[in-house]
Amino acid sequence: MAKRPVRLSIRAERWLLTYITTLAELNPRAARDILLRLERLKDTLEDFPNMSERGPIPGTRRVVMRPLILTARLRDDVLEIAAIRHERQKAPDRKDHKSER
Question: 29 in helix, strand or coil?
Fold first, then answer.
C-alpha cells in the first residue's frame, strides 16, 4: 500500500500553534518534544493510517499522543488531522458535529 500524505487541517494547525506557543513560554523543551513526537507520528501514520481506534464521529480515527488527542480522517486521499485537543479537555459530543464536506 502506498504512503498517504498526512497534514493538519487549518483548525488543527491553529490550535497546535496556540498550544505550543503557550507551552514554550513555560517549558521550551516540552514544546520541542511534542513537535518532534508529532512529526514521528505523522511519519508512522503515512504507512499505517488505520493504526488507531475508530473515533466517535463516523469516518474518523482517534489518535492518542499524550497529552494530546488527535482526530484524523481520510480526505481526498490525504490523512487529515482534523482536530487536536488536550487530554484534559472534554471530548466533543458526537451529535454536535456535522460533515464538513
Answer: helix
As given in the structure block, the three cell numbers for residue 87 are 487530554
User: pTM here?
Assistant: 0.81
Q: Which of the four pLDDT bands, split at 50, 70 and 90, describes residue 92?
A: low
Residue 94 in any domain: the answer is: no
| Angle at CA of residue 48, ends 59 and 42, nearest 5° | 90
Rounded CA-CA distance 28/38 in Å is 16
- Between CA 80 and CA 8 the distance in angstroms is 6
CATH number for the domain that contains residue 83: 3.30.2310.20
Identity of the residue numbered 37: R
Domains contained in the chain, number: 1
Per-position DSSP letters for 4-20, written without gaps between them: --EEE-HHHHHHHHHHH
Tens of pLDDT, residue by residue over 45-91, are 999 988 899 988 889 999 999 999 999 999 888 999 999 999 888 77
> Mean pLDDT of all residues in the chain?
89
